[in-house]
TrEMBL record:
Keywords: Periplasm, Signal, Transport. It comes from Providencia rettgeri. Residues 37-148 form the Organic solvent tolerance-like N-terminal domain. NCBIfam families: outer_YhbN_LptA, PRK10894.1. It is found in: Periplasm. Component of the lipopolysaccharide transport and assembly complex. One of its GO terms (cellular component) is cell outer membrane. This is Lipopolysaccharide export system protein LptA.
Length: 186
């Protein structure tokens, strides 16, 4: 493998890493400092099109991050290295990661797409995200990483479903109990 080929292969692997790191918003900060491993039955590189493809039982691990897919395709246009697109396909694509607060976030979809320049994650096809017992499910979920904005959509005739457990969202401790007591006495 010549130097140019090695460089492009590494860029594809780095792009996969960006995808892995961007799915959950509040990921463990230490994950980015951990080594990344991408395993698959087959890996191929098209130098002319700047496309790296990982196929068959793809497993991406870095720290607490665990992404599994049937196929991951990393496309890097030669004219603009910022426009990297990473697409993962599976039955389903699954991911898991711990957040800084120790709570896990996990999810799945038929397809996951990450546009690096827009920092936009799109999950399509039975998209599902879960944190503890709260979850959201729809045909499509989009997430803008820097602004932490999410939207969920469903096909015609279907609806987006969200389950929120208030007890898991509330702050616990003396200050929360004190405020609760004060509002009851008014």
């Amino acid at each position: 493998m010549n130097q140019v080929t090695k460089k492009r292969f590494i860029q594809g692997a780095v792009a996969s890493a960006i995808f892995a790191l961007s799915l959950p918003a509040m990921a463990l900060k230490s994950d980015t400092q951990q080594p990344m491993t991408i395993n698959s039955v087959k890996q191929s590189l098209d130098l002319e099109k700047n496309v790296t493809t990982f196929t068959d039982d793809v497993v991406i691990k870095q720290g607490s991050i665990d992404i599994r897919a049937n196929k991951v395709v990393v496309t890097r246009p030669s004219s603009d290295s910022d426009k990297i697109v990473i697409e993962a396909f599976g039955t389903p694509v699954t991911f898991y990661q711990l957040q800084d607060d120790g709570k896990p976030i996990k999810g799945h979809a038929s397809k996951a797409r990450y546009e690096v320049d827009k920092q936009l994650v799109t999950l399509t096809g039975n998209a599902y995200l879960e944190q503890l017992d709260s979850n959201i499910q729809g045909d499509k979920i989009t997430y803008i990483v820097p602004t932490q904005q999410m939207e969920a959509f469903s096909d015609k005739g279907k609806r987006v479903t969200t389950v929120i457990l208030p007890a898991q969202l509330q702050e616990k401790g003396p200050a929360a109990n004190k405020n609760s007591s004060a509002s009851k006495s008014k």
